[in-house]
Structures are given as C-alpha cells and as structure tokens.
Amino acid sequence: MAGLVFRGALEGVNYWIKVIKRMGYGFRDADYFFLKIKTAFPRKMR
Predict the structure, then answer these.
(1) pLDDT on residue 16
(2) Which end of the chain, N or C, is surrounded by fewer C-beta atoms within 10 Å?
(3) Is a pLDDT exceeding 60 seen at residue 25?
C-alpha cells in the first residue's frame, strides 16, 4: 500500500513538471527551467 501512495505522489510531481515544461516553451536556458521547477515545489524534496 505504501508503494501506491508514493507512486501517486511521484506521478503528481511528474505531472506538474510537464505542465511547467509546456507553459515554459522557449525558456531562456535549462537553469531557468530548473529554477521554475524548484519554485513550484518549495518544500524540501527527499
């Protein structure tokens, strides 16, 4: 059961990264893209 919960959370993170990627088509560089991802998930990720 714990694996399902973790996998669900991971799928949620992957979804939001894909959304940011679509919204950010044409970002200046990779560093800016990763900065947007970090600001979308402000708490410390393990």
Answers:
(1) 87
(2) C
(3) yes
For the whole model, what pTM was predicted? Answer: 0.57
- Please give the DSSP secondary-structure letter assigned to residue 44: P
CA neighbor of 20 nearest in space, from 38, 43, 46: 38
Does a structural domain hold residue 46? Answer: no
Q: Which residues of 11-40 are buried (b: 16+ CB within 10 A; e: fewer)?
A: eeeeeeeeebeeeeeeeeeeeeeeeeeeee
Structure tokens at 33: 């893209």
Integer Cα distance of 36 and 9 in angstroms = 19
Percent over 70 (pLDDT), the chain: 78
